[in-house]
Amino acid sequence: MDKIFKQGLALRTMPVSQCIEQQNILLQKHLKQAMQGTHYRQTYTDLGITPQEISLDNFSDLPLTSRADLNDRSHLFQAVPDDKIRDLSLTSGTTGNPVRIPYTRNDLHRLAYNEAMAFHGAGVKKGDTYLVGVTIDRCFIAGLAYYSGLVELGATAVRSGPGQPARQWEFIEQLRPKGIIGVPSFLLQIGKWALEHGKKPSESSIQSLITIGEPIRRPNFDLTPLGYDLQEIWQTPIHASYGATELETGISECVMQRGGHIHPELMLAEIIDEQGNLVAHGKSGELVVTPLGVEGFPLVRFRTGDITRIDPTPCDCGWTTPRIGPIEGRLAQRLKVKGTTIYPDTIFQVLQEIKELGPAYLEVTASYDLSDEIKVVVAEESAISVKEITNLLQARLRVRPEVEKQPGKAIMTKMSSGGHKLKRFFDNRK
Ligand SMILES: [Zn+2]
Predict the structure, then answer these.
(1) Which pTM was predicted?
(2) What's 314-349 look like in SS3?
(3) How far is the CA of 121 from the centre of ligand 1 (A)?
(4) Which superfamily does CATH assign the domain made up of 334-427 to?
């Protein structure tokens, strides 16, 4: 293991207070780099802010950066000349247009180190083989990040990509990988395909799953129905990972599976309320991240739009760095029903508890009393009655959404209308 990796491990086991001095140096360096781009240079100059005056103590006074700030103006954030750029990634564009994210050579190294450290925390070892069941092309960064992280750690990466469960199973039988990295519903699909073809996922070489995207854990760390099904079928530990393309930074749950450790030398994380004020540790709010040490596209206090909470207590894995809990929902999808806050993901998690429900989607409209009205549309072919679904949702969520049945075929048509990815949340509030 090289020297830098050893130093990184030392940072993660020392008392947090000892880490702060190093983080202050990295923060000031990061702000200087951010000011190489037009946006932060103008913003900070107008406000009379100089990097030397900023430390972790007053850092939260700096203005926030939102996704809307990047739309159509991402070139103002670029902090290096074009000839320093080695990779161009695009955000997935689920909110607004895709944003162009330039990576320098150092940024790609930084990303590899980031993922290597996250994988190390999740129990991946030198010499292990993992399937990377995530796309590595089409300007997505996640697949490339996982791939380079495995290589950096000294593990072997198999670029199996997404889709084709039969082919994935061939890879598992031929190459005997120790784990798979992928989207939970896809990992479940591979397991189900295997069972249907007389194979036993639980007796395969797979001993660990690393997931991205869909939530597998609730805020209290219990598995969601999807996470539970995944664990049942594979009989392996599951580690949720999280990242955002704009941040060039990702985390993964450690072996304790109680949240993902913040990388002290690569990121600062804060949780804010709706007014942008910091919330107390353990309370949920929007995650704000400052990725330290990025050259090409250095962001400061970036609002991720993801709702989660931070646990600052030392972890049983031996690392002292705070942990970011499961993602509880998207800020843009937050629903308010008669004073109760609820996220579509929470509703889907309840629906996942119903076996053989078939396709289902949510539709939300705004009512005059500023309360959101939620309609759950399920397939009329499902055996469970509208009343039973309504009662289950009310018991779990403490709100009573309207439930409606429609032909499964019509539901699938509506859900596929938005492109290659199935859409299951229709927001008609605006
Ligand atoms: Zn841990």
Answers:
(1) 0.90
(2) CCCCCCCCCEECCCCEEHHHCEEECCEEECHHHHHH
(3) 7
(4) ANL, C-terminal domain (3.30.300.30)
